[in-house]
Amino acid sequence: MQSYLIIGGNSVAGQGSVQAIRNFESNAIVHATTSTAKQADDSSGIAEADKTLYGIDLSKPETLDLIPAEKYKMIIFTPAFGPIGYPIASTPESDVKEALRFSYHPMVELSNRLNPDLTIGFTAFYWLPHTLSAYGSMAYAKIAQEILAVENSNHFRMIRAGSFVSKATRGIGLLLQRALRDTPHAAIRDLGEKWKASGKKFADFFFDYACECEKEAFGAGFDRPHRQTNQSDIERGVSMVLKGDTAPIINVLGDWTWTDDKLKPLPADFRLNVRELL
Question: Sorting pLDDT into bands at 50, 70 and 90, what band is 58?
Answer without folding.
Answer: very high
